[in-house]
Amino acid sequence: MAATARILDFLRDRRPEGPCLVVDLEVIADNFRAFRHAMPDTRIFYAVKANPAPEILKMLASMGSCFDTASVAEVDMALAAGATPDRISFGNTIKKERDIAAAFARGVKLYAVDCVEEVEKVSRAAPGSQVFCRILTDGVGAEWPLSRKFGCEPSMAVDVLLRAHALGLKAYGISFHVGSQQTRLEAWDSALAEAKAIFDAMQKHGVTLSMVNLGGGFPTKYLKAVPGTGTYANAIHEALTRHFGNAIPETIIEPGRGMVGNAGVIKAEVVLVSKKHANDNNRWVYLDIGKFGGLAETMDEAIRYPIVTAKDGDAKSPCVVAGPTCDSADVLYEKTPYDLPVTLTVGDEVLIEATGAYTTTYASVAFNGFSPLAAYVI
Predict the structure, then answer these.
(1) Potential cystine with 330: which of 147, 323, 370, 377 (Cβ 3.0-4.6 Å)?
(2) What is the pTM of this model?
(3) Rounded CA gap, 42 and 63, in Å?
């Protein structure tokens, strides 16, 4: 989404110094309502890691959102925003036992696991809690695919959940994540087929599962158009019906990027425009923000953010876009150069759109002495 009038007015009136992110809460509220309308029977657990700004969490809590957290600090953020413990999931499958105990002491009773060893930690630190087992997916179609770091092979999930049941935990369900910025509507279908097979296998052991966590993956629009929320919801509902028939389980979604991505715009400045040799076809455009300033998702050029300038009506030519730090990895777009106005020059401001998710939390504290990315929520 292009910068809203509210964001443009803020930048014009406040003139903040240095690179900064501006997030429009009204866009996030609209996104939440769209998810709730499209999937009325599904609980929404906002992925706090996408953007944990207190203003965002407080607004979503007031609208009835639940929260997917990855640490005790994020649990505390959700609680401070007004969420009750029953609206919080500790969704990280890699947790210190003392952190599980700390979350449990705060009232959290829903935990993700993907191995027997994690189940055993939860059983000791959070007895009687609900657990769901995360399974691996292939991530095909995702612009930011997830690795094999999280989840187990579906065939292993039965053993994990049976161990949970034997240790007095509530074997609650299955979770998966089809990959961030997922563009294939059918991506959820094969994962739901695996989930149904696990449900059936557990039932044969006398254990009834009741929930499927559909994860995140809901995209935001960058340079390419993406299907709308309703289109994804219809595809997921069709897959649920196909595999579960009339016995559709409880469902959870964990939108992060799809909730806040299009609500934010980064204002940045051109520091230098140069060439590497006299006949270089590509200019190098250096911005005052780069990979270490919040644009880590440009790694491998996975996420290509829209870059808007006041000179976009002028002729354009290919550019390599890089950040300001003394690190050779701080190059945003080189393999596929970015077309920018030939008149772009030092001191020009640019707007990097759809940057509401995974920017402030990815920014380094002070690499090369550069300050963390400033953020404003309006």
Answers:
(1) 323
(2) 0.94
(3) 15
